[in-house]
Every structure is written in C-alpha cells, then in structure tokens.
Design goal:
This protein is an all-alpha fold. The chain has helices at residues 2-5, 9-20, 23-31, 41-51, 56-70. The chain contains 5 helices and no strands.
Length: 71
Amino acid sequence: MTAVYVRNWLKFQYLVNILESSLADIKFLWQEGELRLEFSPEEVIDLIEALFAESDYRRKAIAEIRRVSRG
C-alpha cells in the first residue's frame, strides 16, 4: 500500500536489500532483472564501488553489469 503513495518506495526497498547483500547476491538481482526495474547500471555500480573493496571479483561483477545492461 505504501508504494501507492510513495513513488520511490520500491527503490528504497531494493536499496535496503542491496545494503544487506553480498556482491554475488547483487549481481544475481541485476542479472535476473529485478534491480534493473528501479536502478540504472551506474547507480548499482556506484553502490558496489562504495560497499566492496577493490578486487578482481568486484571488477568482474561491474563488467558483467555493464555487459548485461547493453543488451
């Protein structure tokens, strides 16, 4: 019901989910399309860069998000 009155409610709910998730979970949510409904690729990438230390796995996850978002 809240989503009816608060336009960005679902985005806030996904943000809570992202903040509690592992990098693998975030990547899965993006690949399955759920996050793409509310977030742009750059928003998700910025969150990943803020939440996770620089690593090969982070670089690969970001590259995968960019690849999936292109097509």
